Amino acid sequence: MKIFDYGDNRIGAREVSMTISSIMIGIGILTLPSMLASHIEASDGWVSILAAGMIAAACGLVVSRLTSRFQGSTFHDYVARIATRPIASLISAIYGIYFLLYLAYEVRSIAKISRMYLLENTPIAFISVAFLLVVVYAVSGTTAAVIRLNSMFLPIVLLISVVVLLFGIQLTSFNNLKPFMTTSPYDLAAGTKDTTFALLGFEVLLFYAPLLRPAARTEKAMLIGIAIPVVLCLLTYLYSVAIFTREATAQILFPTVEIAKEVRLPGQFFERLESIFFTVWIMTIFNTSCMAMEASVSCLQGIVSKFDKRICILILCPVAYFINMLPDNMLQYQKFGWIVSYIGYGTAGAIPIILLVVARLRGGGSGG
Predict the structure, then answer these.
(1) Using CA atoms, how far apart are residues 139 and 207, in angstroms rounded to an integer?
(2) Which of 13, 89, 214, 299 could form a disulfide with 221 if both were Cys (CB 3.0 to 4.6 A apart)?
(3) Which pTM was predicted?
(4) What average pLDDT does range 292-299 have in this prediction?
């Protein structure tokens, strides 16, 4: 297979925004309404979503400033400049494991949902292999190619989401959103924690420093990229409660897909809109998986520089498949998701903040 090289392998602010939105719009938005409805009264989850959005925006600004400070350098190289080579190898290993787990979780999730809504008689193992092989094929090319897939697929995903929400208005009941502000602060805080899990992934920008154009305004692009998933999370949550009630939403595994299942277009042009919705949603989950594997491959290459990209992919692909098949039931699948999310707190928040503070103190990077 011959790799096609783009004439311009640089990315600007628009590509950054689309990349951030694409990796954040994934499985989390499909399950978020159910998680929030399980311990938040009525429709008060909007408070948790906005609070989580502000936390994600703050951490995203840290990530964008750190990335802008070391434009042109790979993640492993600029971490080594901030700290030392051994510490850089350790941090690269943490990010590599995190994104590998992230990839495995996305693959298992897409296989599970595909079996529930599209391929009822197909084994999860076969769906996982098929999806993972397509991801491997995409990642085998250039990073710029994966980023351009985001620019192509994201508008389609957003368009279908808007269509579903627009025609779903007729199914909503305002009374299901009442009463307002009856949830305790403790439960709202727990809801904020759940929502931040769904908004992880923006830290992937750390690995795109070599591709950034010098004039790219990454901070503004980061905020726009985070704002799109936050608004989508807010709308899907409110629609879920308004259509199904809070109690019913808490019992539905994928409320966002169920909304598409209930929507009927005028004239019955599409009888099963949820199939179209989910097929399109696969696009963004595919992008998310590709970027996660790209990041994991980058970390492995940073640690073992003599490894070619394709060798790294051949090493990581079987490992990702093995991890993806570990959960035997729904409880183990949910625990797997929690593990990935808790590690994400460190990779999206704690580590970038520490690296930026140390870089400022030591005066490293183009900004300092």
Answers:
(1) 14
(2) 13
(3) 0.89
(4) 93
Q: Reduce the secondary structure of 220-233 to three states and give it as a string.
A: HHHHHHHHHHHHHH
Distances (CA, A) of 316 to 8, 82, 137, 292, 294: 28, 27, 13, 11, 11
Residues in the chain: 368
Residue type, 77: D
In the DSSP assignment, the letter for residue 353 is H
Query: What angle do the packed helices 330-345 and 85-117 form, to 10 degrees?
Result: 150
Q: Which residues contact 88 (CB under 8 A, 6 or more apart)?
A: 76, 77, 79, 80, 302
Quote the CA–CA distance of 361 and 189 in Å, as a whole number: 33
pLDDT band at 3 (very low <50, low <70, confident <90, very high): very low
**Rounded to whole angstroms, how far apart are CA atoms 266 and 151?**
30
Of 318, 344, 319, 251, nearest in space to 26 by CA: 344
The SS3 call for residue 173 is: coil
The lowest-confidence range among 154-163, 227-236, 252-261 is 252-261
* Nearest Cα residue to 16 out of 234, 215, 280, 236: 215
Confidence band of 368 (pLDDT split at 50, 70, 90)? very low
In angstroms, the Cα distances linking 246 to 66, 185, 190 are: 40, 18, 16
For residue 4, which amino acid is it? F
**How far apart (Å, rounded) are the C-alpha atoms in residues 65 and 219?**
7
Compute how many other C-beta atoms are within 10 angstroms of the C-beta atom of residue 185.
8
Find all residues with CB under 8 Å of 181, minimum gap 6, and list them: 44, 47
